[in-house]
């Protein structure tokens, strides 16, 4: 019983943390351009004079 | 001056450009870096999902500078008009409710599993209270999209799919709270939350597919002339957007530019390409005093045109109005999901009401009867039904998108699947809609002649020069160095080498479209230009035939040009058809019981595209064409049409299977629920399983676009 009293709040707290992280990401516009975000990682910053 | 007519002050120095051609990381970095290096441009940020570039820049750069800068980088771009600004996305407002419902459902399920596995007495009570603590606020928040829609329907004395969902969720929550307070054995919080999660997931998918398709097409829109160069009375030359054009203004139309308004030529004479407007491929020659129409392309030399009809009065706008009128015809189409919902909602209500009544008559207490009634409402949850259509459509349109075909509306897949008659426009649809030099003439040229032609053609931006340069480059011709290459408007391109004069000029006598190439030989070589069939056109038509679709040509072009294509493709054809007649032709076929597909690109096809049951346009189509069509294919090959038809038929097969699965599950589960045999555990498992099966079945469509 004491285990539950500790674990349930911890589980809920972690879940809530994830939920808030998601809300933050949503608000800060991270879902505005999913295709772009997926491709941006491929852009090589070093090779500047290639184009 | 650049100004996006929107409220925010950042817009003063920011321009949003649509760049439909970008599709990869390479394009993104090229555009962002290329623009960043230009003086006056502060920064450029690409949004790949919507194919837009937002450029913040100093006030002395205008729209055209930016379009030109992008053209130099190698991308065709259009300034995004205010009327197309940020289409309202239905996804974002649904994401937060989905996240909340999902989070709450998982946690409550965790607690419920403990209860089912034997938690008893005070532990069960505590778990139920904890569940209530999580579920009640979550339901209040995540259920809003359904509650609002249900309320709207009820206040209009109608029902929709959201009404049974809302009643089920609210009654289940209420009864669960009562159970919890009384220390009862069952609570239904998990069921209510799961229901919301699955349904919200279905809606998000549905909205995502609409957004995705629309954003791609939006980026393509607005290809008609966005404005014109105006000569003021004091001789000043200014750029004016087409919305600001007024009758009596004089616009200077350069070679290769499209007219932004109807008008009369006051000086100069030139050839005009009216194919966008009428489908006619032979250029017409017009001089001082002749009328020219908005949307036509000036092929020859610069002319000054006095505006006679601007904005809403142009022939172009007239066609748009014709189109608008026939779109309403199609909006009466009822989507499968809506039809199902219309039947489903009353059936579910009746069933659960009968269950409650039946149990009351059989002597059960009001509470017990209500619990069983709610069980029926929840187990008949339209989760699987709600997912049946959107998941299949999202997967299929994703597959089509990868194949270069954009679906503008989910219902388009349903309509296309039923097609049994197709009408094809000629110019720009069956053919490329661009002049292509006669391949035989090019093959006859020797290396030096071809090299000279390439050097001359590549130093002009005239459409014919560009087409010739493209054809020569494709053959691997090497350019020859020439001196003093100059372009004289309306005459041609001239150059010299070793004291010899060369020219690529307008021929003195020409039938159709042609240029004369002078390379120092006694007689000049005449290079004829003609429109050519799209690649695989014949193969694509054969596939249409296999699909059981009768196809014919419906073109606004003149009889000889259409007859030529009809011979090449073996289709029956109708030539010289006006936009209104095209619309009528479709109306007649529809009355004869056919489901008609219209494939076209031009302004003249707009009304027909809107009137047909389904419509497809190539990516090179006019503004109006793109707007009216349900599908837009980006590749050059015409195979896109049978491909889209096959994919939509496959989608409909899967949708029907999904419905069968969802309904089959209900037929099994409902009697059990009505008999009062369903425990929350069984209800939850059955519900999730039916939804997952539907999703799994829909995933088979990943390879639909083959």
Automatic annotation (TrEMBL), chain A:
NCBIfam families assigned: ccoS
Organism: Pontixanthobacter gangjinensis
Keywords: Membrane, Transmembrane, Transmembrane helix
Domain of life: Bacteria
Name used for this protein in its record: Cbb3-type cytochrome oxidase assembly protein CcoS
Entry-linked Pfam families: FixS
Transmembrane segments: 6-26
UniProtKB/TrEMBL annotation, chain B:
GO molecular function terms noted in the UniProt entry: ATP binding; ATP hydrolysis activity; copper ion binding; P-type divalent copper transporter activity
EC number per UniProt: 3.6.3.3
Keywords: ATP-binding, Cell membrane, Hydrolase, Ion transport, Magnesium, Membrane, Metal-binding, Nucleotide-binding, Phosphoprotein, Translocase, Transmembrane, Transmembrane helix, Transport
Transmembrane regions listed in the UniProt entry: 94-119, 125-142, 163-181, 187-205, 343-364, 370-396, 658-675, 681-702
Any one GO biological process: copper ion homeostasis
Keyword Magnesium: yes
Organism encoding this protein: Pontixanthobacter gangjinensis
UniProt-recorded name of the protein: Cadmium-translocating P-type ATPase
Domain of life of the native organism: Bacteria
